[in-house]
Design a protein that fits this description.
alpha+beta, nine-stranded antiparallel sheet, 7 helices, about 30% strand, globular
């Protein structure tokens, strides 16, 4: 409930426990249970504080096998599956796997972090099983555009409700110390707000069939502001989208939201291996 409220999605799926006395989680909610595992994973990195501070959330992929429900006990593991050199520094890809108390897999996510200006010693290691969307869609095609507002202080609200804490999203001094001048909104909050709007527009507000979410983060979102979610292609299994600021600066590319009636989506035409 708190996560959905922080992104101003008041769908009854997330807010009304009803006769079953439970609510389901927003499709982007897995990032919340992944955060403690990510922090624990960070304890084993051979990076100093300055190098860690250069880490930028670059890409994210979520596969949902079934919605998370209230009252469940969840177990999340984080595994580093790829470390490689990239033009801007070093790339690290982490796989998160979340299961329930009966050992059923609920979701699996891949998160890429780029450490800007950090050199990788050795050749690193890459995995052919990392699923990130490639740029196959003609982004010059605009099928629809939806505006989503970002209010002042949303970084503070989202931090507390999602329990994902980084001072650059809340504290002006912390933001200035890393050269961005003003707090920026979490990339996952931007993604969650866009996903909510797309579910409203294309699934009549029903998130139960959502099974794939993918995105590349390419820009910062300041608060307050307005964002434009641009849909390039939609069909019966999902939508491809980008996100821009009011000033037409792109903040998200290669966005994809997929669904099907079975809750497990296989879409080889839309997804390819990085």
């Amino acid at each position: 409930m708190a996560f959905a409220a922080s992104i101003e999605d008041f769908s009854s799926d997330y807010m009304d426990s009803g006769e079953r006395a439970l609510v389901v989680a927003h499709p982007v909610f897995p990032v919340c249970v992944e955060w403690p595992a990510l922090k624990d994973c960070g304890k084993h990195r051979l990076l100093d504080k300055q190098e860690m501070a250069r880490g930028v959330h670059s890409r994210h992929f979520i596969r949902i096998f079934r919605p998370i429900e209230s009252g469940e006990t969840l177990f999340t593991t984080a595994t580093v599956v790829s470390i490689s050199k990239v033009r801007s520094g070093a790339s690290e890809v982490i796989r998160f796997t979340t299961i329930d108390q009966n050992n059923n897999k609920l979701c699996e996510s891949y998160m890429e972090i780029i450490y800007l200006g950090v050199e990788l010693e050795g050749e690193g290691t890459t995995s052919s099983s990392v699923p990130f969307l490639q740029g196959k869609i003609d982004t010059s095609v605009v099928e629809a555009t939806f505006c989503i507002p970002v209010r002042e202080g949303l970084g503070n609200i989202y931090s507390e409700c999602a329990r994902i804490w980084n001072p650059i999203h809340c504290d002006h001094t912390a933001a200035r110390s890393v050269g961005i001048g003003h707090p920026i909104l979490h990339g996952t909050a931007v993604l969650a707000k866009a996903v909510s709007r797309l579910i409203s527009e294309y699934q009549d507000g029903d998130s139960s069939g959502v099974c794939l979410i993918g995105v590349n983060f390419v820009g910062m979102v300041y608060m307050p502001s307005k964002l434009n979610v641009v849909v390039h292609l939609s069909n019966n299994i999902g939508v491809h989208f980008s996100i821009f600021t009011e000033e037409s600066k792109q903040v998200v590319k290669n966005g994809y939201l997929g669904w099907n009636s079975d809750g497990i989506c296989e879409n080889p035409d839309a997804w390819s291996l990085a």
